[in-house]
Structures are given as C-alpha cells and as structure tokens.
Amino acid sequence: MYAPPAYTIRWLNNARFAYPGPVRNWPDSPYGGIKYWNKEALRAFLAEVKRWQDNNNIPNRNLFVGETGVSRELQGAQRYLLDLLELFKEFEWNWAIYAFRDEEWDAMNYELGTDIKNMFPTESNELFARLKTYFK
Prior knowledge:
Number of strands: 4
Strand order of the largest sheet: 1-2
Number of helices: 4
Order of helices and strands: HEEHEHEH
Helix content: 25-40%
C-alpha cells in the first residue's frame, strides 16, 4: 500500500480533517466518497490483515506493524495513535513507532507534545504519558 510523504499529507489536510471524523477518500475530488474514521473503522480496516493471519495460521506474536504513527500536531492525533495501539494490543501484534526521536524530523517525536513548533522535550505531556503505558 502506497503512503505519500507526511509533508504531503500535512499540506493536503491543511487542518480540514480530524480524528475521529469524516475524511474524503480523495481530498480535493468530489468523487470517491467520504468515510468516517474512528476506532471501529480502524478495526474494520485491519480486519483484512487479521483474516489473512488467521487463514494462514500465523501466531499473533509473528505479526509486526513496523511503522505506525501520526504527526503529533494534528487534531485527534493522540486518540488516533492510542486507538491503533489498543487494537494492536487486542490483536496481540508487535509494533514500532515510526520516526520516534528521529534526528531530522520531529513530527512524530511524542516527547515534544502536540505543539509542532516545540523542539524540546517537556516535563510532561498527556500524549507521551499515555503512549508510554504501551511500551514494554
């Protein structure tokens, strides 16, 4: 599955979309429909992988989601990330956060909080505090 670079997504979003909420399948097109994204929509999206896993008798521990995350300043970013992690925990899949503590790109460094202009770890922020509860 192709995923455009994050800066492209940020430009396309331009604060028009939030999670949970409706998102047009092709942002600037009148065609393609609108889908409401929430935890149940994510569950339905991941169900195809879960079916494949079950049909092929692959143990839960052998599934690895190698790049998950969201740009930290987007509206609903915390809820989106935590919904995904709750689903991965429910499915007993392993996961890693994409670009966490990346030297060149801090949009997914959740230690910095949700203000994209902040470049320094804060004493505490709700996003990182909640995220840490999923670390093993």
